[in-house]
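Q&A FORM
Asked by: J.P.
Topic: structure of PspC domain-containing protein

PROVIDED:
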Amino acid sequence: MRLGRTLPHLSKLFEEGNKVNKVVSIEIASQVFWIDEDAYQTLKDYLKQIRQQLASEEFADDIFSDIELRVAELLYGLRSDEKKAVTRTQINEVIEQVGFINGEISDEEIPRRAYRDQQNKILAGVCSGLSQRLRVPAFILRVIFLALSVVFGLGVVLYLIFWISLSKNTSRADALSAQGKRPTASEITQIKPAKESPLFQVQRVIFLPFSILGALLTVFTNHFKKRKQGYFMIIKNLFAIGLVLLSLLLFSGIYEFNRNQLFSDFTAWILSGGVIYLIVVGLMVYIREYYLPKPVRPVDKKLKRGALVPVTMIIAATIYLNYTHKEHAHELVDKTFNLQSSQLTLAFVEHDEMNDYAGTVRYRIKTHKDGEQQVNLAINYSSNGITQESARENIKAVDYFYTFDKDVLKLDHYWNLKQDALRRGQDIEVTIEVPQGITLNSRWPLVVKHDNDGYQYYTRYYWSKSKEEVSYLSSGEYLHEIGETYRNKLSDNERQVLNDKFCEEFFISESWGCPTNIRNSVTDNYRFDRAFMNDSQGIDQIREFLQPDRSLFVSNLTEIERLINEISIEYAVKGEFHSYVEHLIAIKAQDDISLSLADR
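REPLIED BY: S.T.
REPLY: Here is the structure written out as tokens.
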């Protein structure tokens, strides 16, 4: 069994010194050692004798290379250099430990070492290597790892840990260490290439996917080893591009960091300078290390050590910033305005994009049932601070403007911080409650969303300056787009509510499953409520009307209502889906009458 590769033989490279105290530099098993001339001659004679004793061996070259490797391992432990060369006494000690081919085989056992067995491997040789160390059949270990993989991937994690931790058994000396035997020359000679047992062939079939994976990994590993320089160049250049892009991103982040007023101007500029220092030093080190020719003047160690200062400052600033956000406070301000007509206009003030504002205001619109022509404005201010008191003080640093005049509610798109105030997580959310039965005009389109408080509408801001005003009819808890565009078909918001109620009625799932429920046939959907199985054909016809790639007209609503009435299950109370369909038909009829009167 060949466990290692052919290694370089002992070769004399050059000699230094004089006749009195001559030191020789030798290379053995790809390692360079400094050795006295007498010791060199002793070692040379020893290896020559080993070569003669192996003359009749079938695998003489491989065995000699493994013995040579064992000698190199022992010499490496002596840590020789030009000033402290290996002596003849030390060489004799090494020879005594390795011994000769015809030496006695000792029964002494040494602590077993674990390696990855490359001869009997399925994937990476972990199990076959551990089997020698633990004296357990490799098949049992493979089954254990496979069983543990079912337990949250534990087997995979353990296998990867052993894969990374264990070395390959690349020589006969490694194989002897795995068996608990001392790697002497006589023991190394006794190891012969082993033949694969029929049981191992059966295991290869049982673990065939892993055998294929192991073979592919071996091919890819060899491929990368042969072309590692080319791949290193690609990775090096990609990493350099990543560093440049990261640097540009950090420079952009520095601008936003100073604009957000997290610290005082002086502190912000100090931290920004520290980040710039790290960027410059990092790029300088990387370029000098991987792109400039050698030898090159290295980056001054003082510059590298100086990077610890900005790193410490940034870490301290981050800790302090988290400390200033420890407590959270909010303040709710309620305002009420009386409408003089049945129309309300929402006018959102958009500022010059070059101005620096602290943040945008989030708006949501809902209806109320008070029966009065009132508009309720709920402004929720929130902020963080070291204490509750400081968090409330930070709320006072917020400026936000709104006005109500002649049924026009003018709202600021932004809120900003007062002069010299610092950003501490300040935010504003505004809830506008409008009465039912009025017309709502908005410069920003509204998007419907469903939450614990029912259906609410959120503003959708576009950067385009040419936005047309959209009109809505407030009816029940809904806002319906009205006008010529929506005269005979449903808007996106109306379709969204209709889809939600359809899914809630006929499917058992959360709202996230609704898009799938709409697209797939009810007979193929495991979320379909089996209580409606007898009416699945009619419900599937309704589902076809709700497909996202087709328009939904008022005439389709009439057909949907007919299909609902044909459902065999009798409700004690009319279902929400049916009620909303009737609601939509009534709204569209009302809008149609209004537009007809306007045309006259």
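FOLLOW-UP: The mean pLDDT is 81.
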